[in-house]
Amino acid sequence: MRLLANRAGELHQRYGISFRITGIASRRLGWVRDPHGLDVEAILAKSATPAVAEAEKTGLQSPTAKTVYEQARDWVAAANADVLFEATSLNVESGQPAVDYIRAALEYGAHAITANKGPIVHGYRTLRDLAGSKGKRFLFESTVMDGVPIFSLFDQLPVVHLHGFYGILNSTTNVILSHMEQGLTFEESLKKAQELGTAETDATHDIDGWDAAVKTAALITVLMDTPIRLDQIHCVGIRDLTPQAVRTARRDGWAFKLVCRAKRVGDEVHASVAPEKILSTQPMARITGTSSYVYFETDIFPGLAITEQNPGLYATAYGLLADFIRAVGR
Known about the structure:
alpha/beta, Rossmann fold, Dihydrodipicolinate Reductase, domain 2, 19% strand, globular
């Protein structure tokens, strides 16, 4: 929201976009809405301004009283929303409740923009087709490599066929491996990643490779137009890598990286996520810290690489902002 507010003047001048925030939903705040516009700063500070008090007084029913979908649908309608920004936590198994939030917004007639990978893996085609039937946009640039324009890049490459890709898509494991190379233990390296804000308190999905697998599945599903289940991706994390193995590899001119791979084989796509030793002279071996890297192999461009170098605080927010402009800009 702060990036949106900071760019408000430029959005209006360059793209003819004016906006107001009419709804905020979170575990802490509940389902707050006011179609006339909310005092966002006051809400974030839990200030009792008249607008907030009225929004809270006329708030929706408790989520326990209705299904998640019904609650989201009523909230979007009460907020009279034109655009939904969805940024809930990843559910690897089902993509819920994010899938239902997005479906509710699209069925109401709002554009849906998400930073959550789950809905892409578990509901992409359904949500894409629903958006098309409503004349709305379903956008998700922030789901892979923060706000780097991966999905929108391929929108600008018509009739280019993607044969495969490989890369480093999980910054948490990359931070951990970088610190292990420098002599820290696995536990110390994980703590460093948590202090940086890269790793969550429970970093299981990162360490065991599932965050990277979901991102791999998202790229395959959208860019290779081939739905793939997570259990079809061979997934091995970094949990069993020892500091000694990591440092020995570096001494001998190699770097351990958690590498995502996808390759079209006939009508199928074979995919994997696993630690690999990369020769130190290769570009992927030089990806350290919170940086990410992906190398696409296409029929027109044999090699097309994108590197994101240590993204800042607003990187993911920028992807949401860019999708907002794509959805509603003139």
